[in-house]
Amino acid sequence: MADSVPVRCPSCRRENAFTPPTFPCACGAPLTMPVLRGGVPVEILHRTWQASWVEVRCEVCGRQDEWPAPEAGCVCGTVVRVPVAPAPTPPPPNFPSPGGRARPAPRTQPDAGPPPAPQRPAFRPVTIRTARDCVTAAAQYLKWLGFADIARTQERTASGVDLRGTGVVAQVDPTTRSTGLREVECVWLNGLTDSAIAVFFSLAGYARDARSRADDLHIPLFVMDLTGTPQPVNDAADELITYGARRR
Known about the structure:
With 248 residues, the protein is of the alpha+beta class. The chain has two domains: 5-81, no CATH class; 131-247, Trna Endonuclease, Chain: A, domain 1 (3-Layer(aba) Sandwich), CATH 3.40.1350. The chain is built from four helices and 15 strands.
């Protein structure tokens, strides 16, 4: 668990202990939000989607992604956004060190290759006539990909998660409108929370910005036809089909 840091409330001036959140990077390493010690927290008076994200670089793999901006609440009711240290720019492999000698390039391990693709029988689709059929078809498809214990949520939550299983969460959009950006990002956040792969199934396809964001976050997207057979939309979906639950 990350060490707590003091955060002073700008309203009542009370100092509260705050533990920065930790998320799993795409490389598998835990990434703790690098809270800026001594930084001035900003009271959240009006939320915007853009201000709710912050760019942070993983110290293990060097990948820089957008993550939920850390927020802290005070007993007085004030909610603040805690500032994060800016991501440092990594030096090139042969950047001279302070002693004048070039740093050696990191040694790379030989590529062991991806795990072999699992052998599966042909997928048996579920004909879609209702919204419930869409969820059933998606559940059957995730089981076919090798995910265990796939079950519907008791009732659709505000986050929109319809299916959960071992190592996977999924949302199904059975409407006739294109799935939007917010829905794709919400299922991704649920995947982060559960340390699981987030997958999306849509009957009508995806808006352009939703598709682009899913590509950036490596979220598998599928569209479903009325025969109940999901079709991959992006590279992440193709990869999931190839390796199934082993993709984790």
